[in-house]
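ok so I'm stuck.
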Amino acid sequence: MLYVIQMLLSVFLVWSLLVAIIGTFTKTREVQAQGTATDFSYAIIICAHNEENVISNLLTCLQAQTYPQDKFHIFLLADHCTDKTAELGRNFHQVTVWERNEGVRSGKGAVLNWGIAKIKAAYPAAFDHMLIFDADNVIGKNFLSTMNQYFAQGAEIVTGKRVAQNPFASLVSQWYTLYWCIINALYNRPRFKLGLSSMLSGTGFAFSCRLLEAEGWKTYSLSEDIEFSCQQILKGHRVDFAEKALFYDEQPTDFKVMAVQLSRWCTGGYQIVKGYFHTWLKLYCRQPSFRLLDLFMALGFTVILGIVAIFYILLALGLLAEGDISILFAPAVFMYLATCCVGLAAAYLDGWPLAKLWAGVLTFPIFYITLSLVSLWALFFPQREWVNIVHKGTSDLQSQVKLKVTR
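replied:
not stuck anymore, here's the structure
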């Protein structure tokens, strides 16, 4: 049984490693700036629940864009807000504030279902693309122009590059910083270069309105970003990665908050696997492709983490009862070193100052151990409702981190 579990885990890990290595050393797909490129129109959507601490920062950034101001409009979806989020939004021009108070707060996916339907009804055919942000995001003045270059060259879905806004605030925020380095440098970038599909990560992404013509936005899991990615990949579309479209995103600094967020991610992953595996299987049997296989590997990783956690807990208990747990020592040391090395490599490839992240790198395995245990917990006790993460905001990003040009 030990070898069966190890082989099962190895399949997912080897696939991820091969794609990351091959993609890293593959020639970069260049997206050229085009002075005569079409200036597409954008509906910029911000989902917010009690975000008065941070919403003005994002709105200020959006109104400082170098992109033509008449080519985008901002929709602030204030979901069950009891603070000044909506009021602050109305202080900015080019911002339409819609307040959602009916029913029970049920997560970001439900807000997007509601808000995008309202946009399509109130502004039919007014926009070429939609761009999704979280209220705590901060962006550079060229973000929209950079994203537009990808759409001008035929992209249908584009995700920007997520950068931790508070990378050195705590050990937990360092773990998140390393995690997003892995997503950027070892997941999204290699897949973009190989012609596979990158994956959306909740915010900082845009897509063509044509993709919603038939059904609109319809997601029901707690991981609406991954679910939308899955839906579109199954339909034959691809998510492109805009390397230079950086957006800063505030990360949790508290272990308990991290555990709650990971529980939501894992619950959403299980919901997606359950809801879409049959569709994926039929499609793959009819028309197999590397893009579909890669989607299976990405979604299956959440499930396998829970299975592996179950096995190792049972194995450790059995060996403890027999008085011999030395058999676990070598694999544990190997996994510890491997996880540290992956975090270190990702941070290096993403251009981060490694000297400031050494504590996070050395303790990074704790993040993945927690993720594995939370995945196990979510398998039996799934999160039933969306738990809001309070954002504090930060006044000065540039003094916290200066990200180098990608290696």
